[in-house]
Amino acid sequence: MNLRVDGNIVLSATGRNDNRLGPRTWDVRKWAGKTAQIEIVDNESGGWGNIGVDNIVLSDTPAVPFTRLTERPDYGTMGLAIVRAGVVHEGQKDFASCVLPEGQLPDTAFTENGTAVFSRPFGERLIGSVGRRFRLAGGESARVVFVLTWHFPNLKIDGLGDHKGRYYGTRFAHARAVSEYIVAQLPQLSGQTKLWRDTWHDSTLPHWFLERTMAPTAHLATNTCYWLGNGRFYAWEGVGCCAGTCAHVWHYAQAMARLFPELERSVREMADYGAGFDAASGRIRFRAEHNDHWAVDGQAGSILRVLREHQMSADDAFLRRLWPKVRKSLEFLISKDNGKDGIIDGPQHNTLDADWYGEVAWLSGLYLAALRAGEEMAREVGDAEFADQCRAIFERGRKNVDEHLFNGEYYIQRPDPARKRTVGSYDGCEIDQVLGDSWAWQVGLGRILDEAHVRSALRSLWRYNFTPDVGPYRKAYPAGRWYAVAGEAGLLMCSWPHGESQRVTESFDFYFNECMTGFEYQVAWHCMAEGMLLESMAITRAIHDRYHAARRNPWNEVECGDHYARAMAAYGVFLAACGYEHHGPRAHIGFAPRLQPENFKCAFTAAEGWGSFTQQISKDRHCAEINLKYGRLNLRTLSLGVVWDREPRQAEVTVRGSTIKARTEYSNGKAVIRFDQPVVLNAGDRLTLVLEV
């Protein structure tokens, strides 16, 4: 960008975006005043480019007010330490013994006379260093393991209030304390990390599939996310992009809830039903403290996530704490269904950043899924009257959506007669049209809409929206961000296969032309759950190829910001491939693998532990094993998807060498094994099971 400034008045500015998302031209608005400001407007995408570079402020006043040094966000310490050092003899593989002897310090370069033990290249003296000297004999080598630590506990996020800085600041006083902890705990920390890595990759699923469905989880380790000192997990949508752990974005993400359930529960309690909750109405502000507006998908998604977080808990304490607020939030959603007919009315704000009007299949379908989740939770806490109310509205709604919003191929949006030209997909084939059913697979709610209609909708998305080359389509419709470019495959957000009479070209139309991974993963996991394996794998592979290291950063799936949260929907594809289900308070776990079920192995997580699941199926025997690697797993029931068309006989179950008494029930291709007494597996325990027919 080129700027010419006269005093504090911006006279001109021009620029082009040269990132991989495609070309843009920027206009600059002009202001006069003490502080010159530049507003960058992206003509092609309506101002919604890769957020984080939208505004530049030139000022002759200090940007940061005076604060004490120890209170500044950049105040802190860093450290460099040696964890292990030693000589490795020829043929030696174990490096664990190569540690510094107790009380012996490493060689350093801090000397009073200025003579350095170590030096920089070309003989330049170091200010300070940490190192180790060795004398090596033939066949020997030396290894030194360093640890670089940092401790910057202060954190400022505008509008967030007193959050007590970074969580690690409550555990450690400085970088040296971090180093000491790592040195003391390295075998445990390294061992558990490698054990999970090895467990994850010890799978029959394709290596590329494991890499892609896990890779976006790395976003948790970027500046998209923060663990605050008060225990709250807080995040942007992407790095520096859109504050508030946005409900209508984060509800797509499945990874954190399954891998770090404690963090996910903190978002429900401290954000959605904490800072973002209006106790008087039940409305959830989808950006918590950072806005005063609700969204249909954010509200429904928060209710669904409470059920998920309850299922990923060891007991029902979490649900019972939140239930009064959850019920209030569902009552608020019901209040937007004027006829109690299962279809949301009025303005319907959503993740596409606009209010939609009319009868919108994907938003009402998500509402129906929230009703089913509400019913399940109400029954668990003993609120039968509210459960029955939810069920009644749900039954009317599923009938109305299927009768009025299914066009014979896919689900649509019927316009509000008073607002026919407001933004929406209308008769288009929109990517989230069966999102409610998609969510239901993640939390075991059963079907929301008609099975045949839902599968037809998914086939339509595959037929009309998936393309092996987005180039020709984007040439015809250039508006939007180029997350996929010519020569790359992707699933487009919306298409109009039967003409574009209702394609709205005003504002936000650019969203419909894009390929955004979080939405694509959502469809991929739904296809997998419905048995559409080719479609699911092709969509997932298209993303994997787009994010090949030769093209983009494989660990940075971009939407309106880097390391975008919605991309963690990828983990949902893995869960669907495993046919995974879990309910911690009920001590239930289940698997119904979709890919090569006759010989299958995968990692799994549960409320209090994780491990590996294996099964082999022959013509008359189904053998399964749960190998718990970490924590513990309580079991009263275990379900297995079976491939036979006949009922299996009694299961033989063994734990720690002892036979466990159990009963077997069978229906709809699933065998449920009920244990006569609760089974508790601890790390290192194995449960083996044999079903015969």
List keywords for this structure.
single chain, alpha+beta, ten-stranded mixed β-sheet, disordered N terminus
Structure description:
By secondary structure, the protein is of the alpha+beta class. It contains 15 helices and 29 strands. Strands 20, 21, 22, 23, 24, 25, 26, 27, 28 and 29 form a 10-stranded mixed β-sheet that branches. A hairpin with a 2-residue loop joins strand 1 (2-6) and strand 2 (9-14).
Mean pLDDT: 88
Query: What is the total tally of β strands?
Result: 29
Question: Helical percent range?
Answer: 25-40%
Question: Biggest sheet, open or closed, and with what strands and sense?
Answer: 10 strands, mixed
SS-based class: alpha+beta
The first-to-last residue Cα distance is 72 Å
Poorly predicted tracts of residues? 1-48, 95-105, 109-114
SSE order and pairing:
Elements: E1 2-6, E2 9-14, E3 26-28, E4 36-42, E5 55-58, E6 77-88, E7 107-108, E8 130-131, E9 141-151, H1 175-201, H2 207-214, E10 225-227, E11 233-235, H3 247-250, H4 255-259, H5 261-275, H6 296-311, H7 317-335, E12 348-349, E13 355-356, E14 359-360, H8 361-381, H9 384-404, E15 413-414, E16 429-430, H10 435-443, H11 451-465, E17 466-467, H12 471-476, E18 490-491, E19 494-495, H13 517-529, H14 533-546, H15 570-578, E20 581-583, E21 588-591, E22 599-605, E23 609-617, E24 621-641, E25 652-655, E26 658-660, E27 662-667, E28 670-682, E29 686-692
Parallel strand pairs: 21-24
Antiparallel strand pairs: 1-2, 3-4, 4-5, 6-9, 7-8, 10-11, 12-13, 14-15, 16-19, 17-18, 20-21, 22-23, 23-24, 24-28, 24-29, 25-26, 25-29, 27-28
Helix pairs in contact: 2-14, 2-15, 5-6, 6-7, 6-8, 7-8, 8-9, 8-10, 10-13, 13-14, 13-15
